[in-house]
Amino acid sequence: LFIFDYSTIIIGLSAVFLVFVFIILSSKKMYCQVMKIFGKIKFIAKFTDSLMESHNIIIKSTRGKILFYASALSTLFWLIEALIVYFILLSFGIDHLEILAVITTYTSSIILGVASLLPMGIGVVEGSLTGFLALQGVDVGIGLSIVVIIRIFTRWIVVGVGFIALKMTGFLSLKNTE
């Protein structure tokens, strides 16, 4: 974080946003007020009632062991993904980047993709990761190729395995089970 200024800013803003969200979620009164505000948006209005009812489940999910285990597993997953990115960079002969630089670069790109609210941050992650790699001395053409391979190995293979698992368990069937 201390090596690259852009990572500190992105991760810092994300942390502030998450703290703000947790504050809203921790107070039922504040949560209801926010839901009323969002309920004025036509698209979200039809979901407001179910979101109001889900507050108790959200509170249980953000407390104690569940939060600890979810955070630990998420951190482990992000580190494994960053390690995959590091190995992909090494396989392309890019060995001047340290693992910590790769972790902050990749994480910053993913956070920007999430902030864009696009599915899987498509386009934003690729563009920002290519730009960040270019700032660190990687040629843009090679960077684009690397980013496509990174996305295939870190996102699309996982999505494919998920679809296969859903199909095998029967949750992804066209039959109506009512």
Brief summary of the model shown:
This protein is mainly alpha-helical. Helices cover 77% and strands 0% of the residues.
Task: Give a written overview of the molecule.
The protein is mainly alpha-helical and 178 residues long. The chain has helices spanning 5-26, 28-38, 42-45, 48-53, 55-61, 64-91, 99-115, 124-135, 140-169. α6 packs across α9 (140-169). The chain is globular.
Q: What's the number of extended β-strand segments?
A: 0
User: Which parts are unreliable, with pLDDT below 50 for 5 consecutive residues or more?
Assistant: none
Bin the helical content.
Answer: over 70%
Give the rounded overall mean pLDDT. 83
Q: Shape from CA axes?
A: globular
The helix/strand class is: mainly alpha
Counted by DSSP, the helix tally is 9
Largest sheet: none
Strand content: under 5%
> Which sequence of SSEs, written as H and E, runs from N to C?
HHHHHHHHH
* Rg for CA atoms: 20 Å
The termini sit apart by 51 Å
